[in-house]
């Protein structure tokens, strides 16, 4: 008979502890936030934090830190790289939308191994977003429904995509300034300036009637746009630029009966470049252009034509999988 009251008391204590954990208040964990507006869970407070803040969005980033002793590299490069974006977006939300009901958490599977079992993890990293809930008893990271953001190598380079994804869920407007990418700028600069230099220094000196050539090029451009299938894409409402599920631009559609708007111009540009190179290769010898330099230039131009045509064939294989005449 004595055991019954003891069991009742223990049951009530367990129920009270569960209720206290479930009613985790944001004010109780505010001191745990770091300078980037993120709460990093530890073994000592994980059981409390995993109950979540039920009246707010819970953004949980599960990661793994540490250095591999053999390779001396980080154990999870993707975890390390994406954490920069995670911290940046969290801080931007704190600055631009401080009243947004959202709390950011981060759990390291090495520091808190219990999260692996609780979440049935087989790999890291993971980013999940729990919407607010009115159910006090059942809300937790373990059992509540969530949105999951797909983490790939591209995710580490595009914080704009992650920020836009999170802003849509939170229902806020977030302004993210993309960092200046020096390597990308140099690449585009070289691609744009090289044709200009070639035309200016190598081609323009041999053109006597520049206005006639300009009209010819304009007519040629209009002709290409008219006969290359661009009108087909307009009449059928086909998008000019389409993206796949990884937010990457698809330059070529699969199948021979379908094409994107950008595909029309890409193929037309390929034909134009190969035709111009072939004509220039002929004229260079016919009119003895560039003197003795015409021989090494001919070799370079012929090699360029070969590799460019190989690239064209590889693009055609996207349209017609299994094309037998590849090389």
UniProtKB/TrEMBL annotation:
Subcellular location: Membrane
Record keywords, A-Z: Membrane, Signal, Transmembrane, Transmembrane helix
Cited InterPro entries: OligosaccharylTrfase_OST3/OST6
GO cellular-component term (any): oligosaccharyltransferase complex
GO function term, MF aspect, one: protein-disulfide reductase activity
Main location: membrane
GO biological process: protein N-linked glycosylation via asparagine
Topology versus the membrane: Multi-pass membrane protein
Signal peptide positions (record): 1-22
Protein name (database record): Dolichyl-diphosphooligosaccharide--protein glycosyltransferase subunit OST6
Source organism (scientific name): Kazachstania africana (strain ATCC 22294 / BCRC 22015 / CBS 2517 / CECT 1963 / NBRC 1671 / NRRL Y-8276)
Organism ancestry: Eukaryota, Fungi, Dikarya, Ascomycota, Saccharomycotina
Name of the coding gene: KAFR0C05520
């Amino acid at each position: 008979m004595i055991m019954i009251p003891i069991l009742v008391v223990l049951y009530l204590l367990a129920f009270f502890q569960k209720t206290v954990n479930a009613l985790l208040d944001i004010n109780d964990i505010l001191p745990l936030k770091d300078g980037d507006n993120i709460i990093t869970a530890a073994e000592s407070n994980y059981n409390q934090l995993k109950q979540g803040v039920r009246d707010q969005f819970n953004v949980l980033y599960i990661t793994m830190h540490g250095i591999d002793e053999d390779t001396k590299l980080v154990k999870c490069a993707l975890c390390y790289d994406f954490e920069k974006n995670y911290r940046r977006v969290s801080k931007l939300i704190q600055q631009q939308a401080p009243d947004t009901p959202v709390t950011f958490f981060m759990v390291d599977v090495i520091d808190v191994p219990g999260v692996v079992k609780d979440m049935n993890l087989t790999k890291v990293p993971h980013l999940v977003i729990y919407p607010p809930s009115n159910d006090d008893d059942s809300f937790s990271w373990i059992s509540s429904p969530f949105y999951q953001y797909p983490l790939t190598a591209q995710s580490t380079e595009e914080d704009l995509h992650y920020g836009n994804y999170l802003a849509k869920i939170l229902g806020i407007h977030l302004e993210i300034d993309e960092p200046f990418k020096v390597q990308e700028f140099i690449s585009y600069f070289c691609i744009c300036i090289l044709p200009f230099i070639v035309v200016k220094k190598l081609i323009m000196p041999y053109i006597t009637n520049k206005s006639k050539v300009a009209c010819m090029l304009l007519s040629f451009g209009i002709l290409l746009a008219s006969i290359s299938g661009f009108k087909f894409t307009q009449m059928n409402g086909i998008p000019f630029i389409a993206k796949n599920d990884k937010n990457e631009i698809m330059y070529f559609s699969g199948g021979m009966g379908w094409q994107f708007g950008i595909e029309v111009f890409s193929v037309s540009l390929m034909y134009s470049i190969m035709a111009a190179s072939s004509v220039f290769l002929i004229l260079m010898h016919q009119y003895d252009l560039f003197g003795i330099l015409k021989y090494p230039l001919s070799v370079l131009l012929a090699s360029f034509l070969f590799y460019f045509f190989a690239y064209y064939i590889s693009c055609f294989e996207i349209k017609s999988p299994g094309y037998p005449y590849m090389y």
